[in-house]
Each structure stands twice: as structure tokens, then as C-alpha cells.
Design a protein that fits this description.
The complex is a heterodimer of chains A (502) and B (160). Chain A is mainly α and 502 residues long. Chain A has 21 helices and two strands. Chain A has helices at residues 2-10, 13-31, 37-48, 53-78, 87-137, 140-151, 153-157, 162-177, 202-220, 237-246, 248-263, 268-283, 295-318, 325-336, 345-348, 350-384, 387-406, 409-427, 432-458, 462-467, 470-500; strands spanning 179-180, 187-188. Chain A has a two-stranded antiparallel sheet. In chain A, helix 1 (2-10) runs parallel beside helix 16 (350-384), helix 5 packs across helix 11 (248-263) and helix 9 packs antiparallel against helix 17. Chain B has 160 residues and is mainly α. In chain B, helix 1 (10-29) packs antiparallel against helix 2 (35-61), helix 3 runs antiparallel to helix 4 and helix 4 (102-117) runs antiparallel to helix 5 (124-148). Chain B is flat, with a radius of gyration of 24 Å. Classes of the chains: A mainly alpha (502), B mainly alpha (160). Chains A and B meet through helix 8, helix 9, helix 17, helix 18 and helix 19 of A and helix 1, helix 2, helix 3, helix 4 and helix 5 of B.
Chain lengths: 502, 160
């Protein structure tokens, strides 16, 4: 009976409107490059202080889930991830949009986000306490290997030369080390420049490396930005549903990956999306299509990153440890409201928690109609706007988005310079994605590496520390498969075809 | 497979640049006081140098597929000027923001990039609609960020 009461409480007109408004606001904010899900939640947190805790949670959850989904729009239509969670969405989303299938890609992303969100919320509803213990099983070395697993996606992204891709990854890792060292506070790789002391801001670097090269190429030719279909195909929901049904295993697997990664404190949607993408590519029969417009890539990334919403709430609510950065903001808002998170929350304040979880389901389901409508509008706007207006508009969005992250003009300069370097490197076979991967995963990899190194050195068992723990070994096995799997499959296929050829 | 001598010269040049960056990083790490600070960048820089050497070996022996080093990229066309205008306009915007304020800088930058991206002939319709659209877009984003999202955008140091 209590479950029905909580469900009805979540469906109250006020909570319904909050869920709807939150999803719409989150989607719009998330679609703007530079405005992340964390920022979307943080900006709107003060509104929740006067609300009931359950309603406040529903609003914040809806904003969060909407923002994670909204990041897909600019990733697909502009090759610029609106949020870091949507990095891997660019890999296949933008090629699809360039081929005239941007509407289909946006709808696929919407369906995948809804599926991922529902799987994450279901895990939060029924598995929260046991799954929270997963977070505690991960030590520094597991985080290190998890980051390396994310980096192993470089092999998948190297469109030709693996060595160049690995060099790009190293460059990204070194870029992430610029500034004050997190562990020991040494100032590194600034070469006397005050501008670099604050380090390279990840989101602004991401905007630069993905968006500026596109702008540089757009401005150089009179060609249209995206290929436009001669007849309007609407949102192509039926087609997207059929593709989603065919990729149901991919969707569920990616959602589970997203939930599990979301549980890990600090890992977040970007790692979830990358790991799920890597796994989808590894297990696909059409590996060669990935990176060139494979719907499976979008499905994997978008379902995984939205699953981190429910997954991230598990340690936040059960352990009081935020699973993702937006969860940290939400945790702070809950503490302001006097809600004591912890293992007893589900029993002592069950009505709040379960009303919120049902509210999260509601917000996720509402994401389908709102996402499709906003997506259609976004797609039509992008293809309708003349190029002479589109280029300065996107350029201006990158400027204001980058500036607003840290209120820093230096970040804007760094963004443009990195973007220009990315364009130059891209012309010579060094693609931007490995650099971005290195940059994003660098700090997690370094922290895990240094802490594991310190513990291993203190216990005089470095090898055991890095290679002797069961979870680490499982991740290492996945890394090896991810790195060398594609080459081995290629060799195997070639050997078979040579055998068949007389 | 293609031979090293008949191909692009860019690969060894970039390998040298990456190796030099790696060496520079290793040199910089010698000034750090704590082992926790240098162990990671030094390891990564060493790997990058090793990869640069491997790349040169691969290039010399011609062990790569055609196209993967960027040889099939379209040549840079006449529009290099437009590309340069875009990049310099964006950098100039960042530098002018504190001086002119975000709104004025945004309008100016929008106008310059609009001109750089304009390929269609300027009809009376475009002459009126494009600048107005630009002003609305810039002002709209400015208001969204400064008033709704409360981002403290630069106001400029106008003397009046």
C-alpha cells in the first residue's frame, strides 16, 4: 500500500509539473555547449529550498536527467557534446547527421536515454542497498584501471594509425596534468605562465577540440552544414523504435554498465558512455561502422549516460557519497533541507525516497515526448538556419559557454587555441577524440595511479597492488580485449578470407 | 604499403614535435618536489617519446595503410583567409571582452564571423534580416546567461 501511496504522491499535479518543467529546463540547458548537467542542477537548486523534500528531489532529478539527454543534441547536430557525458555520442551521431539522418539520430538518442533512465531508476528502486556496496569495493587501483579502460577506447577510435591515436591520448593525459597537482600541490607544466596555473578546464577543452575544427571547416566552404533530406520525415519514431528493438541487448547492457559506473563515486556519465560505447563496439558484428554513423554507438552512449542518473543516486542516498558531480550538488541541497542521507534513509524517510524514485520514473518517461518535440525543433532549426548565421551563432555559443564555466577569458583563449591545434593535428591523422579521452580521464587515472603506487610501495607489493585484485584483473582483461580485440578479429577474418581464396 | 621517402614528410615532423614535448615534460618534472607529482607525467611523457620513435620506424618501413596519416585529406583551399578570420576573431573576442564588455564584443565578433561565413550574395532581405538576427541571438544569449543563469559576464571598462 505504501508503494501505491508514494506513486500517487509522485503523480500529484505539482510533482507532475515539476518533473515536466525540470526535464524541459534540463534538456535546454544540457543542449548548450559549456552548460553541464552539474551546472543545470546547481543553477536551479535555490528554487528547491522552499519545496517539500520529495518535490525538490523530483525537480532536481528531472533537471539532471534532462540535461544528460540534452547534451546529445549538440553532439549530434554540431559535433559538440553539450555535456561531457555525450562525448561518445559525437562519434556516430555527427556522421549520421552529416548523412541526412540527424532526425533519426536524435530520436534514437531520446529512446536510448529513456531506456537507460528507466533501468537506472529501477536499480535505484529495488537494488539500492546491495549495489551501494559495489562502490566500497572499488579502491584507487580499480579507478586507475577503469580510467585506462576508458582510454582503451582509443584503439576503437583510431581510424587508421593506432600509434598516432595513442600519442594523442598521451598528449591529452599530459594536458590534464597542467596546473596545480591534486595530490601534492606542485605547479606542473605551466612554464611560468599564470594563465595555465588553473589547469586546462575539461569542458572548455572539449568544446574547443570538437567544435572549433568544425567551424574552421564550415567557414571555408559554401557547402551546407548538414545534408538535408528532400522530404520531411518527421521524428522517424517508427524507424527508431525498430532499430532500438533490434539493439535491445545493447541498450540493456549499456544501461547496466551506466548504472554500475554511476554508482562509482566521481566516475560519471562520460566514463559510463565511453565504456558502454567500447563494449558495444567490441561485441558488434559491424565494428567497422562504428565512428562512421552506427546507431548502436548512439544507443550505447545515451542509454549508459542516462542510467548513471539512477545509479549515481544509489551511493548518494544510501551511503551519503555522491556518485556523480550533480549528485554532490543534490546531496548538498538535501542536507540544507534537513534530510539525513545514509543507510537508514530508505526506512526512516521511505516516503520521501520512494516518492522521489517514482518521480524519477515519471520524469524519464516524460523525456520521451518532450525530447522528441525539442529534438525535432532543434534539428529543424539547425538545418533551416543559413550557414552565414549558423557559424557565428555556434562560435558565439562556444565563447559564452566556455567563459561561463569559470568566468575566465583565459579559458576562452585556450579553447580556441586547442581547437585550432586540434584542426591542424586532424589534418595530419591525429584525431581529437583520443586527446579528449586523455584529458577527461587523466585526473582519475593519475589519482588512482599515484594512490595505488603509494599504497603498493608502502606495503612493498606494487605488483600485487596493480595486478593482484580480482576487480582489477577483470577490468584488465576487458582492456586487453578492447585494445587488441579489433586487430585480432581483423587478422582472423583476413586469414579466413585468404584461406577461402584459391 | 607505401615507401617512406615518397610519402608525406609530416609524420616524422609530428613525431619529432611529440618527442620534443615529451622531453620538455620530463625536463619540467625534474623541478617538482614530490614524487607523487612527477611519477605520472614522467611515465606518460616517456611513453609518448617511445611512441614517437615507433611512429618514425613505422613511417620508415612503410607499415601503414594509405590515408591514415592524413595524405588523403582535402587540400587547404583558397578560403584559408576565412579560416584565419574566424580563429583570430574568436581570440580577439576573448581579449576584448574585459575592455568592451561581453555584449559589444559578442555583437562585433558575430558580425565579423558572419562576413567570413557569407557566401551568398547580399540581397536587401539579407542585409536587413541577418544583422537583426545576429543582434537578437547575441542579446538573447547575453540575457539568458547574465540575468537568468546569473553568470557575471564582463561589463567592459567604458569611460562613459
Amino acid at each position: 500500500m505504501a508503494a501505491v501511496e508514494n506513486l500517487l504522491a509522485a503523480m500529484s499535479p505539482l510533482n507532475f509539473l515539476l518533473a515536466l518543467g525540470g526535464v524541459i529546463a534540463g534538456t535546454v540547458i544540457g543542449s548548450l555547449p559549456g552548460l553541464t548537467a552539474t551546472m543545470a542542477v546547481a543553477v536551479l537548486v535555490p528554487i528547491t529550498f522552499s519545496m517539500e523534500p520529495a518535490s525538490a528531489l523530483i525537480l532536481m532529478g528531472a533537471i539532471y536527467t534532462g540535461a544528460i539527454y540534452g547534451g546529445a543534441y549538440s553532439a549530434i547536430l554540431l559535433n559538440t557534446p553539450g555535456t561531457p557525458s555525450a562525448i561518445a555520442t559525437t562519434f556516430d551521431g555527427y556522421p549520421m547527421a552529416k548523412d541526412g539522418d540527424g532526425d533519426l539520430a536524435v530520436t534514437l538518442a531520446c529512446i536510448a536515454s529513456v531506456v537507460g533512465g528507466l533501468v537506472g531508476a529501477t536499480c535505484l528502486l529495488i537494488l539500492a542497498p546491495p549495489l551501494a556496496s559495489v562502490a566500497l569495493a572499488f579502491g584507487p587501483v580499480e579507478y586507475f584501471w577503469l580510467a585506462i579502460f576508458g582510454l582503451s577506447l582509443i584503439a576503437a577510435l583510431s581510424e587508421g594509425n593506432l600509434i598516432k591515436a595513442l600519442m594523442g591520448g598521451c598528449l591529452g593525459l599530459l594536458l590534464s596534468a597542467i596546473g596545480v597537482a591534486e595530490v601534492s600541490a606542485d605547479i606542473r607544466l605551466t612554464f611560468g605562465s599564470q594563465v595555465l596555473v588553473g589547469g586546462i578546464e575539461t569542458v572548455s577543452a572539449l568544446i574547443g577540440l570538437y567544435c572549433v575544427p568544425v567551424l574552421i571547416d564550415l567557414v571555408a566552404t559554401p557547402d551546407k552544414h548538414l545534408k538535408v533530406s528532400t522530404q520531411s520525415k518527421g521524428v522517424r519514431l517508427r524507424e527508431a523504435m525498430e532499430i532500438s528493438w533490434r539493439g535491445k541487448f545493447n541498450l540493456v547492457r549499456s544501461s547496466v554498465i551506466g548504472t554500475l559506473v554511476g554508482i562509482l563515486p566521481g566516475a560519471g556519465g562520460s566514463i559510463a558512455g565511453l565504456v558502454a560505447y567500447s563494449e558495444a563496439r567490441r561485441s558488434s558484428r559491424n565494428q567497422e561502422r562504428f565512428g562512421k554513423g552506427a546507431p548502436e554507438g548512439i544507443q550505447a552512449t545515451e542509454s549508459a549516460n542516462n542510467a548513471t542518473v539512477g545509479g549515481g543516486f544509489i551511493p548518494t542516498l544510501v551511503l551519503g557519497i555522491p556518485g556523480t558531480p550533480p549528485d554532490a550538488v543534490i546531496l548538498g541541497a538535501l542536507l540544507v533541507q534537513g534530510v539525513k542521507v545514509g543507510p537508514n534513509l530508505f526506512t526512516s524517510e521511505g516516503s520521501i525516497v520512494y516518492t522521489f524514485i517514482w518521480g524519477l520514473f515519471l520524469a524519464t518517461i516524460l523525456m520521451l515526448p518532450t525530447g522528441l518535440i525539442i529534438g525535432r525543433y532543434a534539428y529543424r532549426s539547425i538545418i533551416a538556419i543559413p550557414k552565414a548565421l549558423l557559424v557565428p551563432t555556434v562560435a558565439f555559443m562556444t565563447l559564452i559557454g566556455t567563459y561561463s564555466i569559470r568566468n575566465s577569458t583565459s579559458d576562452v583563449v585556450i579553447m580556441v587555441i586547442l581547437g585550432t591545434l586540434g584542426w591542424i593535428l586532424g589534418r595530419f591523422g591525429f584525431s581529437a577524440s583520443p586527446i579528449v579521452l586523455g584529458l577527461i580521464l587523466g585526473s582519475i587515472a593519475e589519482q588512482g595511479f599515484v594512490q595505488a603506487w603509494t599504497i603498493g610501495a608502502a606495503t612493498e607489493d606494487l605488483a600485487g597492488m596493480f595486478f593482484g585484485r580480482p576487480i582489477s584483473l577483470a577490468i584488465i582483461a576487458m582492456i586487453v580485449i578492447s585494445l587488441f580485440g579489433p586487430s585480432l578479429v581483423r587478422l582472423f577474418t583476413r586469414a579466413i578470407s585468404e584461406e577461402k581464396t584459391p | 604499403m607505401t615507401t617512406g621517402s615518397s610519402r608525406d614528410i609530416s609524420t616524422p615532423i609530428f613525431a619529432a614535435i611529440f618527442a620534443a614535448i615529451g622531453a620538455l615534460v620530463i625536463w619540467d618534472t625534474t623541478t617538482y618536489t614530490d614524487a607523487d607529482s612527477y611519477v605520472f607525467p614522467r611515465t606518460i611523457a616517456s611513453v609518448m617519446i617511445a611512441l614517437s620513435v615507433l611512429l618514425v620506424i613505422q613511417w620508415t618501413l612503410g607499415w601503414h595503410r594509405a590515408g591514415e596519416n592524413g595524405e588523403t585529406q582535402k587540400p587547404i583551399s583558397q578560403s584559408i583567409l576565412r579560416r584565419l578570420v574566424l580563429v583570430f576573431a574568436m581570440i580577439a573576442a576573448a581579449l576584448l571582452m574585459p575592455l568592451l564588455g561581453f555584449l559589444a564584443t559578442g555583437m562585433l565578433t558575430f558580425a565579423v564571423i558572419l562576413l567570413a561565413a557569407m557566401y551568398d550574395p547580399w540581397t536587401p532581405y539579407r542585409l536587413i534580416v541577418y544583422p537583426i538576427s545576429g543582434a537578437v541571438i547575441v542579446a538573447g544569449f547575453y540575457l539568458l546567461f547574465s540575468k537568468v543563469l546569473k553568470v557575471p559576464l564582463p561589463e567592459g571598462t567604458w569611460p562613459f
